[in-house]
Structures are given as structure tokens and as C-alpha cells.
Backbone:
């Protein structure tokens, strides 16, 4: 029996198509808004009387705070800042709490409550859990980090932080001796760095596979001397991580720093260091759930300003603010631009060997083009053998698409999509 | 006859209807940081419209710029030295080159423009444009104006200014007047010569001969006066045309 329904007039099809697209749009644009939270634990002291206190763990904590707070809904700093650090960061001590087990637990509860609210509102909360300080490995092989009133063990990490967290993604960044054992439970690391990488990759998968939303970046060095460098008044690994997160590791100019970019950036930065005491070994693994999830996204609306270092400026460079705080180091290829996120309403120096230029980031969202700045001569001083190794060799290798592509290929990692230049379509 | 000749001379120097009055400028396709190609392109189009509206700018169409860039055999490498930049400007057949980058940082949209001269020297400006395209063009126009005004002094600039017709019309008219004056002068000289050598072509005697001779003298006098007037006018017009032509030359 033939249908009695008249066919839809032709002119109505475009309207139906538009309606369909409009209904489908929310589904296509389904990526939820990301809301960041940061919990930073920075502790100079150690529970082991044989371990000398660190000098710059609190400085690292303060600098992580200044980098992450403008990008985060809530940032917690658990640290006792020493007199020097309090002088460098006026007003910050009032925002800190002591790094004890109790305050850590309270902070985690508060952040979890906020993240649950975000989840209910359809947002994707992201937690940065950062520790910088002393770490140690117990008799049973379980790693822990030192808080003021006791150790915080690997078991604590898994049961109190990772398992109960409602965060969509957790970025775990640990700069401590033996931090590998703080995250992973078994195995001993061979001495050779190449073997280290192979073993850590295999071992890590056992522990972290249960938490596919967790990504980790760890310093696996055991030599305490390699951790800190007085020229930058910070831990070398943490300084490299902050430099990368500020944007120096964004190799393809998409404004996002992914794990593969951060790892390659740190590898390039450490490539030239031959002194074994200055060698940094790192272990990093992106969240299995999304290996391309960014550690930082400069495109997001934040309270940060930006420094554009355009083509034509290159070589080993660093940014220091007018308080004397070294904000970022990098070795830039001349042929590509680079953007660094900086705290606004503050003066900075962009320095390279023998030259410097002064700049001010006037407000959040402002971009300062370093290509239009005036340069003058400057001098840099350092001391000590490891200091010399760092000064001469750290960041001695240029980081850019060439290094990145080679490094990522050698590691068998998934590379980011490279920028293929300007749009040349008519 | 004189008028039509001058008109022909004048029309020959009229500018073509589509010619642009200004300095040739090439806007390179935008580089982008933390922004998709589509978003970068929409900002580029807004900036392109703003530059095209700037007085004194002859902006090369995007299609021509892109065709040149695609025709290059080697992939584009960023010029970091003044010599390289100067040769690039020359290669693009322009007087000025604008390199641009749009950055999608911190939820805002920032544009950096670098104006490169034929000598490779740079001037740059950074400005923010609204994320909504409607006001981007106006923001770009306001930002680019001081950069353009502050470029190299005009005397060093090759201006593609079309020649205006009236100096040449004056010159042409003067030349025609001079030529006519010379013609009438030669005719007067011929008449004078004929009259001073015998009868001056008059026949007969008495009153008839005197009248013919007097007419010949009068005609020669008129030719002489006309030649003097035309030569004077031609000289004045020619000199004036020459002065104005020099004034009009770029």
C-alpha cells in the first residue's frame, strides 16, 4: 500500500539540517571546563637525623605556588618558609600551613569537597599534587617523604590521595631523593640511566594502572647534591619542571605542555651535564586515560601575563624577577618563537650570556614582546665545582622541534602534532 | 586643432582606474600561538581589512601573497637578520612587509605586527583584539596607524604616485604654440623677402599696383605679429608646463 504522506518540501531540509546541527553542537563541544587545584608540600627538614636539611625546598614550594595559584581555583601551600624565603616572597607566609599529616589530611578533604562541587556542575577538576623535600626508602623497600611530624608513605599516597580523589586528572610531581619508591613499591634501580628508564617503565605500570587518571613526574636521582643549586636558589629538577610548565617546553606552539614535551625539555636541559653529581634522572608517565592531557594550558583564562620571545632571539636564556627570584631557564632555538607565562604586575629581567633586558608584565592577560625590548650588558657569577657543571652545562642543548622529535622517537612516546606553519590556503 | 592635440596628450597620461595610490605592502599569512588555524585566519582577515583601509597603503591581495609563498621551492625559514629581511621584502616586490602573529593566551587574543622596511629594519607593535570579530578591525586599524605613520621618512620612500595630466597638457599646448609661431614667422619672413626684392608679385601700374603692394605689406605685418604672439605664448606655456612637471615628479 503506497504511503499517503506527502514528501517534505525541499526548502525545509536546510532548516532541519540546521536544527540537527544545533542539537548536536552540545555533544560535539562536550569537553568540560577544567578547574585546577594545587596542593604543594615543601619541607626542608628530614626525619632522618643523618640527612642534612635542604636549603631550597621551601623556595621551590613558594615558586610553585606563584606559578599555579593564578591558574587555580584553590592552591594550598604546606611549608614553613625560612627567613630568606619569607623576605623574597612577602606576604606568602600568611597563606601557608605547616606540612604535617593533620594539615595534609584537612587540605585534601577541603579540596575534595570543592572538586566534588565541580563534578556536580559538569566541570573537570584537575589536581596538582606536588612534593619537594626529603624522601627515603624504608627497610621494606617502601618509599616515603618527610613531613614535619612523620613520614608520608607510598601507601598513604595511594589510600589518602589517589584513591579517594574525585579529580578527573591528578598530576603528581615529586622532587625528592628516592621518589621513585614513593610512587612504586618493588624493585631496585640499576645504576645505568638507560636501564633505569627501562626498569621504571615496567615497574610503574603495575602500580599506576589502577589509576589511569594519574600522571607522574618524578626525580629519580639519589644524590642530594644534585638537587639544589644556589645560583637559582632552588632544586634543579623543580626549576626545570616550572620552566617547562611556564611554557618553555611548548614545542609546537599550541599553548599546551604535554607530558612528552615536559620530559623532552628536561632531557634537553640535562643533556650536557657530565658531572655525575649533577646528572638528573627523571621518570614521567602521562595519565593512561589520556596521554595527551596537558600539564598546563596557556590558552586558558588565568591570572598570568605572558612574555613572547620571538624568532631572532635564541640561545641559553633565563628570566629573573626584580626580587632576584629565578623564574625560568631555557635554551631556545632562534628560528621559533616561545611564550612564557609570568605573574603580572611585576618587573623582570630577561637575561642571556652577557646581556639583559628589563620588562614589566602590566596585568593579567598582557603579552610583552621581547623583540621590541632594549638590551644592555650584564655579568653573571657562580662558584663551586658542581655549580660550574650546572652553569656551563645545564640548558646547554637547545630545545626545539628537532630535539623533541628525536627524543620522543627514541623513547617510543606519542609525539604532539607539530605546527605546520601559517595558513597558506587562498 | 590645438585643443584636440592637447587633449590627446593629456589623456595619454591619465592613471588607470584601478591603480592604488600608496606604497605597496605585503601582509604575510599569520603565525599562530595557542590558537586554531580558523581563529587565526579570522583575525588575519580583520587585520587585513584594517591595513587595506589605511591611507597610503597599497595592500597586496592575500591570494597573490600566498601564491608567491607557495611558489617558493624551499620551506619558509624565519629571517632573523636585517639583510635577510631586506632581501625578502625585495623578493616579494614590495616596499613594506608586515609579519604578524596572533596569540590566544589567557583567554584573550593578542596580535603582534612587525613592519619591515626595504632596508630590513623593523618596527613592531603588540595589541589586543576582541575575541568577537566585530570590533577586531577597528582595534587593528587604531594599532597599525601609529606604526605606519612612524615608518621611514618619505624622502627615502619610493612612492608609486601617478602623474597628473595638466603639466603635460601645458607643455604640449606650449609646444604647439611655439611650432605655430615658428610657422607664421617663416611666412612673414617669406613675405618680407618677396616685397623687398622687386614688385612683390604685384602687376599693373598706378593705384592698382600701390594697393596690391600695401596689402602685401599688411599681410606680412599680421603674420609677423601672430608669430611673435604665438612664440611668446608657447614659451610661457612650455616653461610653466616644465615647472609643474618637475613639481609633480616623485
Residues:
Amino acid at each position: 500500500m503506497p504511503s499517503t504522506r506527502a514528501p517534505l518540501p525541499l526548502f525545509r531540509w536546510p532548516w532541519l539540517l540546521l536544527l540537527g546541527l544545533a542539537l548536536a553542537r552540545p555533544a560535539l563541544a562536550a569537553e568540560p571546563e577544567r578547574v585546577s587545584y594545587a596542593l604543594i608540600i615543601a619541607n626542608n627538614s628530614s626525619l632522618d637525623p643523618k640527612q642534612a636539611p635542604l636549603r631550597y625546598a621551601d623556595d621551590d614550594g613558594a615558586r610553585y605556588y606563584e606559578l599555579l595559584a593564578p591558574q587555580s581555583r584553590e592552591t594550598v601551600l604546606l611549608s614553613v618558609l625560612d627567613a630568606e624565603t619569607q623576605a623574597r616572597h612577602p606576604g606568602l607566609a600568611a597563606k601557608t600551613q605547616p606540612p604535617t599529616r593533620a594539615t595534609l589530611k584537612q587540605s585534601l578533604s577541603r579540596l575534595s569537597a570543592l572538586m566534588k562541587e565541580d563534578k556536580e556542575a559538569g566541570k573537570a577538576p584537575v589536581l596538582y599534587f606536588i612534593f619537594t623535600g626529603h624522601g627515603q626508602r624504608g627497610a621494606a623497600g617502601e618509599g616515603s617523604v618527610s613531613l614535619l611530624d612523620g613520614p608520608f608513605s607510598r601507601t598513604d599516597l595511594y589510600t589518602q590521595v589517589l584513591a579517594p580523589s574525585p579529580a578527573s586528572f591528578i598530576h603528581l610531581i615529586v622532587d625528592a631523593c628516592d621518589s621513585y619508591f614513593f610512587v612504586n613499591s618493588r624493585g631496585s634501580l640499576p645504576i645505568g640511566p638507560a636501564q633505569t628508564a627501562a626498569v621504571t617503565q615496567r615497574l610503574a605500570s603495575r602500580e599506576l594502572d589502577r589509576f589511569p587518571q594519574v600522571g607522574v613526574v618524578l626525580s629519580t636521582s639519589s644524590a642530594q647534591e644534585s638537587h639544589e643549586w644556589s645560583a637559582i636558589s632552588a632544586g634543579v629538577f623543580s626549576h626545570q619542571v616550572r620552566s617547562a610548565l611556564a611554557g618553555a617546553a611548548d614545542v609546537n606552539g599550541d599553548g599546551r605542555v604535554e607530558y612528552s614535551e615536559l620530559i623532552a625539555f628536561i632531557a634537553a636541559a640535562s643533556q650536557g651535564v657530565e658531572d655525575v653529581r649533577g646528572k638528573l634522572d627523571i621518570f614521567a608517565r602521562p595519565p593512561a586515560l589520556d596521554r595527551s592531557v596537558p600539564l598546563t594550558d596557556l590558552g586558558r583564562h588565568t591570572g598570568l601575563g605572558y612574555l613572547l620571545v620571538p624568532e631572532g632571539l635564541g640561545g641559553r636564556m633565563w628570566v629573573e624577577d626584580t626580587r632576584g627570584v629565578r623564574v625560568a631557564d631555557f635554551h631556545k632555538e632562534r628560528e621559533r618563537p616561545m611564550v612564557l607565562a609570568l605573574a603580572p604586575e611585576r618587573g623582570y629581567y630577561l637575561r642571556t650570556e652577557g646581556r639583559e633586558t628589563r620588562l614589566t608584565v602590566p596585568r593579567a592577560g598582557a603579552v610583552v614582546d621581547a623583540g621590541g625590548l632594549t638590551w644592555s650588558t650584564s655579568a653573571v657569577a657562580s662558584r663551586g665545582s658542581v655549580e660550574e657543571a650546572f652553569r656551563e652545562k645545564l640548558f646547554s642543548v637547545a630545545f626545539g622541534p628537532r630535539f623533541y622529535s628525536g627524543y620522543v622517537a627514541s623513547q617510543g612516546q606519542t609525539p604532539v602534532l607539530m605546527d605546520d606553519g601559517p595558513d597558506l590556503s587562498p | 586643432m590645438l585643443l584636440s592635440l592637447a587633449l590627446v596628450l593629456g589623456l595619454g597620461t591619465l592613471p588607470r582606474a584601478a591603480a592604488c595610490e600608496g606604497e605597496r605592502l605585503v601582509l604575510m599569512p599569520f603565525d599562530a600561538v595557542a590558537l586554531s588555524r580558523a581563529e587565526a585566519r579570522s583575525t588575519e582577515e580583520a587585520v587585513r581589512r584594517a591595513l587595506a583601509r589605511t591611507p597610503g597603503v597599497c595592500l597586496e591581495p592575500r591570494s597573490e601573497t600566498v601564491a608567491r609563498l607557495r611558489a617558493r621551492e624551499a620551506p619558509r625559514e624565519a629571517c632573523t637578520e636585517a639583510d635577510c629581511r631586506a632581501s625578502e621584502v625585495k623578493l616579494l616586490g614590495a616596499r613594506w612587509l608586515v609579519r604578524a602573529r596572533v596569540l590566544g593566551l589567557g583567554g584573550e587574543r593578542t596580535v603582534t605586527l612587525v613592519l619591515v622596511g626595504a632596508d630590513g629594519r623593523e618596527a613592531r607593535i603588540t595589541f589586543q583584539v576582541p575575541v568577537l570579530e566585530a570590533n577586531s578591525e577597528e582595534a587593528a586599524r587604531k594599532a597599525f596607524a601609529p606604526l605606519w605613520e612612524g615608518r621611514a621618512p618619505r624622502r627615502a620612500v619610493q612612492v608609486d604616485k601617478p602623474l597628473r595630466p595638466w603639466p603635460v597638457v601645458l607643455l604640449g599646448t606650449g609646444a604647439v604654440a611655439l611650432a605655430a609661431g615658428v610657422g607664421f614667422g617663416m611666412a612673414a619672413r617669406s613675405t618680407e623677402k618677396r616685397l623687398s626684392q622687386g614688385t612683390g608679385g604685384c602687376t599693373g601700374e598706378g593705384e592698382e599696383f600701390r594697393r596690391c603692394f600695401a596689402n602685401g605689406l599688411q599681410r606680412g605685418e599680421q603674420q609677423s605679429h601672430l608669430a611673435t604672439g604665438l612664440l611668446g605664448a608657447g614659451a610661457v606655456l612650455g616653461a610653466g608646463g616644465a615647472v609643474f612637471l618637475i613639481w609633480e615628479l616623485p
About this structure: Strands of chain B lie at 23-27, 31-33, 57-59, 96-103, 109-116, 122-129.
